[in-house]
Design brief:
Helices cover 42% and strands 14% of the residues. With 401 residues, the protein is an alpha/beta fold. It has a seven-stranded mixed β-sheet, with helices on both faces. The longest helix has 26 residues. It binds pyridoxal-5'-phosphate.
Length: 401
Amino acid sequence: MAISPPAPRAGAPLSRRLADTQSSPVRELLETAMQPHIISLAGGLPAPDTFDVPGLRAAFDEVLSGPDAIRSLQYSLTEGDPALREQLAAFMAKSGIEATGHDILVTTGSQQALGLIASALCDPGDTILVEDPTYLAALQTFQLADVNAVPIPGDDDGPDPEALIEVARRTGAKAAYLIPTFQNPTGRTMPLARRAALAEAAATAGLWLIEDDPYSALRLDGEPVDLLAAQPAARDRTIVIQTLSKVLSPGLRIGYLRAPKALRGPLAVAKQAADLHTSTVAQLAAERWLASHDLSEHIAGLAAHYRPRRDALLAALGEHLPEGSSMTSPEGGLFVWVTLPDGHDAEEILPRALANGVAFVPGKYFYAGEPVKETLRVSFATATPAELAEGAARLGAAIIG
Ligand SMILES: Cc1ncc(COP(=O)(O)O)c(C=O)c1O
């Protein structure tokens, strides 16, 4: 009797962690928003016309045609290129943080830093406290690490310090993840007094603080506020994450962090396991660019680019949003957060908006807790002032229906 071969079996099921991790709805929306007839207020990509293509080409040329060519194509140190780390520490020091190159770990974008921190600090099932709403891809990273993201109640100035202590005690949280300056998605900035109170509260609750800071350099007006990590009570418990993505180029994938001493070794081990090190050639080119340009001057140019765009969007939203709407008025970053009058549902409005030729992101995706359906995120990053004005008019028309 012929023996028939066993029936083919499907592969084993995916890990629970991956099955539970949502693909970012923003990515899918961004694909739709790329159609030429759509004005996109959805993305948070830096304006392409701000990229210093000749400067970066010269930096890569210098690396690849000079004595560092072979080194740039070789494996390198997990912590990052020493000269680049010095440059990044000097830049971080401008935000009120004492840092030397030794304190810096270079990461593959600041996104990687979030994953390294989650795996260094947390076991599966542990908790990290978050603002609500917060950065969508941080929620994804925590999900993938099987870490619960639990919202901290708060107000327009940020999480409430008493609530931080209470939620930390109730959940046994390991850390709080905060974006104190020009937050994504709201554009809000925590005032200094709230930073000080949160630092004290984190100390009382024995929490690590994760300060994600991609946007503070993109200040368009107003006075700079020192980082949360500069607060005396926060100094020894805060991991500060910054990035070259918003000030130079996200394609370089150069992020960096400064961690309290006790976490430096563990984070370097996590980095080694993740990808050994960040691209050597990208690091050396970034270092050459930083050595031959004044980053602060370059950033002043970015602010001059974004300022009229922010102003155009705020003015047009003020004109076209229905009465009873509110919006943030950010002094920097790339985002404005809109709250429509009670009863509106931003997700229901989105198909009408796309049909009208404008894209935005419904706010519900950014919540770890109960979403507020009236909210939405718009960005002034990539459109021209005229397009932003037209986009806001189309949005207003879509809201009315
Ligand atoms: C709050 C926040 N954190 C981290 C990132 C990731 O940036 P990158 O990995 O390019 O440094 C972003 C990008 O939009 C962001 O908005």
